[in-house]
Structures are given as structure tokens and as C-alpha cells.
Design goal:
Layout lengths: L1 E6 L2 E8 L8 E7 L5 E7 L5 E6 L11 H9 L12 E2 L2 H4 L1 E3 L7 E9 L10 E8 L4 E8 L10 E4 L2 E8 L6 E7 L3 H10 E3 L2
Antiparallel strand pairs: 1-2, 2-3, 3-4, 4-5, 6-8, 7-14, 8-9, 9-10, 10-13, 11-12, 12-13
Length: 200
């Protein structure tokens, strides 16, 4: 660990996590020495460039917390539209999907089925969300029936360290639309997309 001042008056330790392959990003993590609170985090790409960073601009560790005031702020929905989605825990196998081969280091952590907005009932009216993690980064695969009106073309988008890949998947029971999202390099999302297959 390194000793530095990440914010005036605070000592922090810095840990750098370097990936062993090109399927994930590296990280630099600053944690305040006394509390262990992460005060700064950088995501580093394969060329050692910072592609995303978050940090406190002001920090007061010993400030009293008024639990009741905090709960009121968190519970207030004034000015927001509240939407409730019904999630149903499932498995990829039950939904008819599998991976030909695992993507190195990533393990499945959850799988849910949710209604697709405006669609009818039954399997054609649902989206599957299958989530994987390597312990730091996560990847979510959203699979739904293909609709040419809503999903006209395949794209790869980047926002900081988060990439989104969309792809049309042909199937015997109709075409499907994959949206893969994760804080990983695009080649990782492509590896998931290449490996995802209809199992029924």
C-alpha cells in the first residue's frame, strides 16, 4: 500500500488490481486508512488509461447521522413516477438458454424473468436477465423476443467503463434480441454473445 493524502487531512492506502487477461479492466482503489472507506476509485483500461473515476470532493467522517431524517429523504417519492416490475427468479436453463463455454473468470450469480413492456402474456412477453460476476465486474445478458420495430440495428456503445452490445440471435422458435451490459471491455461482451445459445 502507498501512503498519500487523497483529500485534505485524510491518509489513504492505494491498491492497484491488474487483470491477468484482456477480459476485464484494472482498478486503483484509495481507501481511508482509519475507516477503510473507499474515497477514490479509478477504472484502468488495457493501455493503462483511466477510463472512469469516482471520488469524494468533500468528506466528513465523524458527522452525526440523523437516521429519521435520512429515512424520510430516502422514502420521499415526490416528483418521481413509481413503477413496480414483477421479477420472477428463474434459471437460464428453464428459459431455454445456456452458454456453449463459460467466459473465463465469470460465474452466474442470478437469473430473473420480467414482463416486457407492452407485450402479451406467455414466454414471448418476457425478458430474461442473466447476470454474471468475476467478483469485481458484472455482466448482464438481457434476452427478449426480437421486434424489428423496437430493435432495428446492432450497436456497441460505451459510457465510461460500461459497455453495451446489442445483437440479433436467430432461433428455431423465432429470433431473439440480446442486450449485453457490463463494466468490462467489449471483447468480454462479445465472448458472452458468441457463447450464448438457445438450448431448446
Amino acid at each position: 500500500t502507498l501512503d498519500l493524502r487523497s483529500a485534505p487531512g485524510f491518509h489513504a492506502d492505494v491498491v492497484q488490481l491488474e487483470p491477468r487477461d484482456g477480459l476485464r479492466f484494472g482498478y486503483r482503489v484509495w481507501s481511508e486508512r482509519r475507516s477503510g472507506l473507499v474515497v477514490k476509485l479509478q477504472t484502468i483500461d488495457g493501455d493503462s488509461r483511466v477510463i472512469e473515476q469516482s471520488a469524494f470532493s468533500e468528506l466528513q467522517l465523524d458527522a452525526p447521522v440523523k437516521a429519521q431524517a435520512l429515512a424520510q429523504m430516502m422514502g420521499s417519492t415526490a416528483g418521481y413516477r413509481v413503477e413496480k416490475y414483477e421479477l420472477e427468479r428463474t434459471t437460464a436453463a428453464k428459459e431455454g438458454w445456456s452458454l456453449r463455454a463459460p467466459v473465463a473468470g465469470f460465474k452466474p450469480v442470478s437469473c430473473y424473468r420480467r414482463p416486457t413492456g407492452g407485450a402479451g402474456s406467455g414466454a414471448q412477453g418476457h425478458t430474461m436477465q442473466w447476470t454474471f460476476s468475476d467478483g469485481l465486474a458484472s455482466v448482464s445478458l438481457f434476452v427478449e423476443p426480437y421486434d424489428a420495430q423496437r430493435q432495428p440495428r446492432e450497436v456497441l456503445l460505451a459510457l465510461g467503463a460500461t459497455y453495451t452490445l446489442t445483437r440479433r440471435l436467430p432461433g428455431k422458435d423465432g429470433d431473439w434480441w440480446l442486450t449485453a451490459v457490463g463494466e468490462v471491455p467489449p471483447q468480454t461482451l462479445d465472448a458472452f454473445a458468441q457463447s450464448l445459445v438457445r438450448a431448446r
